[in-house]
Amino acid sequence: MTRIARAPVFVPPMMAKLTDKLPEGDRWMYELKFDGYRALLIKTHDRIALRSRNDKDLTATYPDIEAAARKLRAQTAILDGEIVALDANGKPSFQALQHRAAHRHHAIVFYAFDVLHLDGLELMREPLDARRRRLPAIVKGSGILLSQSLTGSAQHVIDAVSRIGLEGIVAKRRDSRYEPGERSGAWLKLKLDRQQEFVVGGFRPGPNGIDALLVGYYEEEKLLLAGKVRAGFTPHLRREVLEVLMPLHIARCPFVDLPNSKTSHWGGGVTADQMAEMKWVKPNVVAQIRFVEWTNDGHLRHASFLGLRSDKRAVDVRRELVKTT
Description:
Strands 1, 4, 5, 6, 7, 8 and 9 form a seven-stranded mixed β-sheet that branches. Strands 13, 14, 15, 16, 17 and 20 form a six-stranded antiparallel β-sheet that branches. Strands 2-12-11-3-10 form a five-stranded mixed β-sheet, covered by helices on one side. The protein is 15% helix and 37% strand. It is globular and about 65 Å long.
């Protein structure tokens, strides 16, 4: 622990590596993987800042969280956590988080799971267990919620989270120091619901807005097609996404591997004839997509749109590969 004189400032959040198996043993703790926006909550006396993982200012977007943060029991603090929309049953909804109209029917909350700075103390070199022990006293009575650790064996935790239909589980080494911007393997995430972010590179227009999105991911500097996404859209969403994409129109396809199919059906590939039906956009927009699996030819099967993300940079989007433990 280090005492510092300057005010707390943004640091890139520590990230978790994807895994297909939760680690076992007393050196690991488990908590829910929330389906929301990762953010840092920074309190400097009476000034509150809510910053996305890529350092965008979200403070004015979530006034309820800002109001709760003013009640934190600290003069200065940085809390790491997740912005989450909860339905009437307390279940997170990523789609509701996106759309302001849905905020009337959902509680917008901040779940804190780490503290990096507290009243002049820089805590990132403390072990995770020690940092987390400070959290209950900081958030008590404020309206900022505490991400609770999950007890039991790895399989017990997996079964419990699966039953209530939540996105996944994060395992963290209890002795881990906070490593800003790193995926060191000290934190691991197990996804029970297959989804990740993808870059929007084009779309097929329909009578009510977007008929389907073309999404992909980067390998080095090349944008590769992951698939077409038609499910998950309401009529309102089709129009809303179209409004976001139209100003980004470009003449040339940004995917390096299109056209990639000789078949004419609307499946995983895009034929040369179908290319003429598409509208191409600058690959700046990131969408969250749920899917069943990757096909043998590297495309998404049964993909469904969950929402657009402003908290992640398109150039950072890669195909998520599982780290086995």
